[in-house]
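Quick one:
INPUT:
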């Protein structure tokens, strides 16, 4: 399974912010849209990622207030990225290794979407549930009188 499979199911809604915007505006957008991340774009290029983790770190640095900071002052300017063709197992490994909860999906220099750790986990669970359902149906339909030790039919 690939990242493109997640994006196909998830849809194409994407929220971005500019690096020079006030951090308070970005936080308001995140709260209004009930999202945990914003992709930071500048002149059509990915320049960073703003997640609730960076926002909280900035609030702590400012003594409990957002202050007059810009998005640039809080964002991760080197976010972990993947492509639509990246295998899901590789994305899981990367997200776990780097403690990344959100990952922009890039095709060349074009932003295709963002996947979250939740998206990856849900896809894995859904896939396993489907596989389990198919295996149970297969076992239920096992031909009478055929055991696991019986030789395979020959032609």
């Amino acid at each position: 399974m690939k990242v493109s499979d997640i994006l196909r199911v998830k849809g194409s809604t994407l929220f971005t912010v500019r690096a020079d915007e006030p951090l308070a505006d970005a936080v308001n957008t995140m709260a209004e849209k009930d999202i945990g991340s914003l992709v930071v774009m500048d002149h059509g290029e990915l320049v960073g990622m703003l997640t609730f983790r960076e926002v909280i770190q900035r609030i702590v640095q400012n003594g409990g207030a957002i202050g007059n900071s810009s998005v640039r002052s809080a964002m991760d300017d080197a976010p972990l990225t993947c492509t639509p063709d990246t295998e899901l197992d590789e994305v899981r490994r990367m997200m776990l290794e780097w403690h990344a909860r959100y990952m922009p999906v890039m095709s060349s220099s074009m932003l295709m979407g963002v996947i979250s750790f939740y998206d990856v986990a849900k896809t894995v669970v859904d896939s396993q549930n489907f596989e389990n359902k198919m295996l149970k149906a297969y076992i239920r339909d096992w031909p009478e009188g055929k055991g696991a030790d019986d030789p395979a039919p020959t032609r």
